[in-house]
Structure formats: C-alpha cells, structure tokens
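Data availability (excerpt). All sequences and predicted token strings are deposited with the supplementary files. A representative entry, Amino acid adenylation domain-containing protein, is shown inline so that the format can be inspected without opening the archive.
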Amino acid sequence: MREIQSAIQGSLTQLHLFLMAAERFPTRIAVSDAHQEISYRKLKEWIMRIAQALHNAGARSGDRIAVMLPPKAELIASLLAIQYIGAAYIPLDRNAPKERNSLILDDARPKLIINENGTSSFPDCPASDIHQMLDTPAAEFLNAALPDGVAYIIYTSGTTGRPKGVPITHANLRALFLATESLFRFNEHDATLLYHSYAFDFSVWEIWSVLAYGGRLVIPDDETRLMPAKLTQLIHDRNITLLNQTPSAFSVNAHWLCRFPAEMLSLRFIIFGGERLNFQTLTQWQKYFGLTSPRLVNMYGITETTVHSSWHIINENDLKQAESVIGRLLPGFRYLIRPLDKDNGQKESGELLLSGPQVTPGYLNQDNEANGKFVRHESDNVFYRYYCTGDIVRHNAAGKLVYLGRCDQQVKINGYRIETGEIESILARHEAISDISVIASHSVTHGHHLVCCFTSPDKLDKEKNVIEQLRELAKETLPVYMRPMRYRRLDIMPKTINGKIDKQNLRLSLE
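Structure token line:
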C-alpha cells in the first residue's frame, strides 16, 4: 500500500502518461473508428484545439463539462481535452431519456455541454459544437490536470429516483493503473475496443489501458457493437489484445469468436466485470481455447472505487465449483467483511467494505457522512475511511473472495448497477398502480433481466392497458438498461411481517 500511496502523491496522472506517449509514438495510431484513424500526434492536436475552444467559452480548471457525442474519435479527444484544462467530464448517454439527462445536468451544473450541433435542449446549459471546436486554432498551454482534481463524474442509479454523481479524481484513476500495470503489462502493442458506453465506467478502463501506454483504441459503431458476427470480425481484423466484457455480453460474443482458430486471434486477456460469471459459456470456451491463451480474468469493482477493486485469473477449479471468485484485492486496498443478520443463513458472509486510494471522495452534492455509505474503522490506532459496497462476499477455502450478490435493492444487469427503487419510484407515478416492486430475475429465454410486479384496482385495470402504459412510461423516462423486460400484474403483493414488500417470495414466485 505504501508504494501505491507514495506514487500517486507525485504529479503524474494518466493524462500525463498519454502526453508522454504522444511524444514517444507520434505516428502510431491512437484511435480508430468506423471512418478514420487518428495518430497520437493528431489526437494531441485535436485536444489542444478543443482545450482552446473550451477556454474561449470560459471553462476553467475545476469546472464541469458535459459531453453528449457518438462513439467516434472526436469523443475521445473531447474527454481528454476537458481533463487537460483541469475540468471534469460528465458523460451523457445519447440513448437515455431526456428526463434522466436533465436530472444529471440539474445536479452537476456543468459550464457547458459538448455535442454535434451546438444547440442545447437543456435550460441553463449552453452547448458547443464539436466540429467548430476542432476548427479552433490550437494554442500550447500547460496541462492543468492535477492528482487531486476531479477527472470525471459518472452518475449511478439512486434510491430516490434521482441518479447520484460519483466524482473520481486523477489520483483515484492513477491508483487503479499503478495497481494493475504489473498484472497486465500494458504496452504500445496493445489494442482494445471501446465496447462500453462512455457513460459506464468500464469505458474509463478501456480508454486508459491503451492511450496512456502508446496502444490503440478501436471504436466500433453502434451497429457493429450490437452484431456479434461483425464485432468478432473486428476483434480479429484489428488485432485486439485486451477485450473487456460483461459475462452477459461474452455469452453471446464467445460463440462467434470460436469461429477463429486461437492462433488467428491476438487476444492476451479477456477481462470480465460487472456481474456474476456465466460458467456454461466459460466451459464451452475452455473446450475451444483453453484458459491460458488468452488469460481470462474476473475483476470486481464499482464506480465508487474506480472501476476495478479485485482480480482473479479464472482456472479449471473455478469452472468445476461454479463460484464467481473475485479473488484478491488490488494493491492499495484494505477491506472488511461486515457480518450480515444472524438469521440470513450465511454466517461466514457479509457486506464488503473497501478503503484505499481508489475510493471516491464522496457523492456530489450529498452529505456523505450522513448517508451511511462511508464509515470509519480503526486499525492499529489509525482510522480508515471505508466505502460500504452493498455487495455480499465470503472467503473460499483458498482464502479468496467469492461474490454472492447484493444485500439491498441494487442489482446488476448486463454490468449496469441498478437501484430498483429508482425504477419503482418512476413507474409508481402511473395512476393505476397500487403497489409496485421491480426485481431481478433469470431465465433461459431472457437471461438476466428486470421484472416489474404491480397491483392495480380491477376496474381501472380493465379500463386501461396498464402494462402497455407502463412500458411507454419506462421508455420515456428510463435508459434502456433500466427498463423492465417483463411486467406482471398481481392480485395481492406479498408482504413481510413488518409490512414491507417480500421480494424473496416475489422472486420465488417468478421461478
């Protein structure tokens, strides 16, 4: 831990490493998308142009800048330019409902938003056209990214129906890569896909695992990303070496990757995160490729602890035991396992609490001491600040951590951490709803998905097609990954003795 702490106290950030890589490898391809390939020299020039345009618009160090752009090289230049002036970027998902993005902007209060047309549909948030910004004459000025400055703010699901902003500093980000550089040996020959939305923190790992080391970031367009045949062909053609996947996504893409002989793929690592492993897929994968080339790595982490917190190289025993082993914590972390209720049947399990240089300073615009997510514990006369993850873990016989699930209403679907209470809060607006509960379920047909269970007065239910109206309400107000796949009307909502909705019985009734 001391080595990590002392290293991040220096002035280097991932952005500094990118600038060094640009000096060392100016002609190497930094970013490619469906339409263009951009060298490190060109990407740096774009960054300087956008940085100057931001400065001309009044943006300064410490400001927040929202970004709503398609997955192209211009997006990457924008994110890095924002950090270059010492500001923090706030990603807005283009496919999310306007209401959700409005809530984010209302909370974050950014200086401006970068988009493709320079027109803002959000009050009090002016817009800048990325194309005009790239026409701004470049001016050399010093990189203002400092370790204690905020690099980005990603919004996660919130219990009140309002998303929560998680600021991550440059020091948090640098700590992540200081802890993983020796594990993955990132280098200028690496190439990775920007497979995930830049509003999802897996994208942060994808971007910086190559751009800080002279490697290539390959950006598939939306059509390619959603079509396994095209995506896996791209992985082959672009010699991808680092592939990041949620287990759900890999269960689809693995079948198509098996078209290629192992020697025709350049993959060094396939890195999983975001949810429990799919052992049926992994067992089939092992038959084709084995487990050593590429290495399969399961990583656990959450937005509040900067993408990844633990790592585990998947082995044959894992497949036999079918346990979602998340392994050992990355260097720099301390952890506690807080016991759960005595009657829950998992005496050796508990909630994982994490402390270390990757933990966020706290939620934006919230009383972080009062919300119960951050606590202090003493060890050897030193008080450490811990983040309460809400994830249930235990140790296996080898002393490694095993992920068991969530201890509250948060669930993970396709890698997205979702507070089901947020969905319930929004869908409960419908006038025909008496009781409502959203739970995670799994089936062979639908995989991991959300189910909305509700009760409604008979007369009202007959007069209106409530389910279709709920689907429409979800479409208007929730991003795709938060929309229930199934809806079920109940005569009576099951309740516990203390009057709360009995989610366990509800879940069992769906199986």
